[in-house]
Design goal:
The structure is a single chain. The protein has 6 helices and 14 strands. The protein has an 8-stranded mixed beta sheet with strand order 2-1-3-4-14-13-12-9. Strands 6-5-7-11 form a 4-stranded mixed beta sheet.
């Protein structure tokens, strides 16, 4: 099985790669369109802001490449947000693969933005990506923008209200948290993705 990490400049690429190595998969880091198209699985990692993230994909000529993929694709953190239609962060048009808008958390007493740290996952449907995920399993988050709960939501998390923690539409999937930093739960979900 060939797995590629899209080299879109995310600072979490190294840790995602190590997490995959622990599962016995050596993922190639690439921005080569042909290599991305030929892979069995594609992962779009990302840490940072939506505007620069999309600008980097445009620079590399990868926007239409990613949109055309038919194999399982996983966006992680910012990578998940870039799969959506639009982000309020910098008023950015994203890839438009999942019909959702990304909005900033509302600041409120006792709720710090960014949302940073461990929080519980709540599966809202059954899906192969969630195999063996239990209600209340913990995952590690670092983000200021979130995708609301919608028809594409597989699992949610509560932080001053519910938001999407895991999403999917057709062959495109996203995890808002960092599976590579989420211990055994993250490893389990990455393994599930590799088995799709």
């Amino acid at each position: 099985m060939s797995v590629v990490l899209v080299d879109a400049g995310g600072t979490n690429i190294g840790s995602v790669r190590y997490a995959l190595q622990r599962l016995g998969v050596d993922a190639a880091l690439t921005s080569d369109a042909a290599q991305i198209r030929a892979a069995d699985k594609v992962i779009l990692p990302g840490v940072g802001a939506a505007g620069p993230g999309m600008a980097r994909l445009r620079e590399l000529g990868l926007v239409d490449v990613i949109r055309s993929l038919t194999q399982p694709v996983l966006g992680v953190c910012l990578g998940m947000q870039l799969l959506c239609a639009h982000s309020a962060e910098g008023d950015t048009d994203c890839l438009g693969l999942i019909p959702a808008s990304v909005n900033r958390f509302e600041e409120a007493p006792g709720l710090c933005v960014p949302h940073m740290g461990w929080n519980r996952l709540s599966p809202v449907t059954t899906h192969p990506l969630l195999k063996h995920l239990e209600q209340g399993d913990w995952a590690y988050f670092v983000h200021s923008y979130a995708v609301p709960v919608g028809a594409y939501t597989l699992a949610s998390t509560d932080y001053g209200g519910g938001f999407s923690a895991v999403i999917a539409s057709a062959n495109f999937h996203g995890m808002q948290f960092h599976p590579e930093r989420s211990a055994s739960v993250g490893a389990k979900l990455l393994k599930n993705f590799l088995e799709l």
